[in-house]
Structure prediction request, 407 residues.
Amino acid sequence: MRTALPSTPLQRLRRELFSSPLDGLISIGLIGFLLAVVIALVKWALFQAQWAVLQANSTLFAVGRYPLEQQWRLWLLTTLLVAATGLSWGLLRGLPRLDRVHPLWPRNDRIAVAVVLALALLAPLFLKLSWAIQLRWWLEAALLVATRWAAGRWASLVPPPARRLAPLIWPLLYFAGMVLISGGLGLIQVSPSEWGGLLLTLVESSFAILLCFPLGILLALGRRSELPLLRWSSVVYIEFIRGAPLITLLFLGQNILGFLLPGGLAPDRVWRAAWVLTFFAAAYVAEAVRAGLASLPKGQLEAARSLGLPLPQALIHVVLPQALRVALPATVGQFISLLQDTTLLSLIGLLDLLGTARTVMANPAFLGRNAEVYLVLALLFWCCCAALGLGSRALETRLNPTANSAL
Prediction:
């Protein structure tokens, strides 16, 4: 067998882009087109765009009309999230891997840290924020890097029981975050009508993502159930939701719940929209999980039952882990679509990120500044969706049995 000789970067570049005259012409054309687009975009951003609309409304885009005297809660929540992110990131990198020796700071991690530090240093300066807020962002970035390094450095010293309990940080932090945002436990209540901007978008999407996943699993199992009433109820629900546009369901949720429920039981408009998003996404998650269940041979469940496992334990310990691994890409794709669908909330009067942008652009002082605002909104949504995609691929790699079976 002939072994491939090592090649220099220039040789690999020539082989991949200029292996033939036609490939060379196509590569030159595409490179020239991309360079022209990048140069035009940089020229517009540096010399023609007017970023005053973002500098004057940065707080509005971030948290909406959240009371200024209560915004310390959001900074506290941001600090807790940064610390939990660095801790989880470091523990994942610092734990020993069975398949290979994993470096403490791989290349992708170094790139991610460089991007985070660059954003923390440049974004506050670009938005012309006060020195106090700039210092807070710099401290948050330093906290992320420090906790990531410390957790990765000493991950092997953490006892296995504590290591298994580490994921519980996130659900506890989510409940603590909701208390900090909305009030309670001695904190002043902040009405959901005062939430807005990126804060409202993240609250709505995270609430729907967390609840639609278990609900989708139950619907998928119900659709495959042998009980006719349960099976057909699941089928009717899934097909009805999949056949109705989301914007129609949002309008129905905003108007009908107010008539069906007494005034004291009807949830706030923000939570009505959150539940509609949850029920809508659950139908699509159910179909993704059902596809994962259908991909497994029936012998898996039969073998688990023959070993004496009851049906619930056979589903939880044998069938669902395999099915969810298969359904993970489609499920995360639905989560990304759900995050993007939160832009429809502006059509029902909620000031999410897009609704806040439309309100700002209606201000006579900022007329004609649509390109700057929409470009920043696109970058924010891209960052959130890219984070979900990267997390999904990392989870797929860790759950891949072929990659983790070698000793």
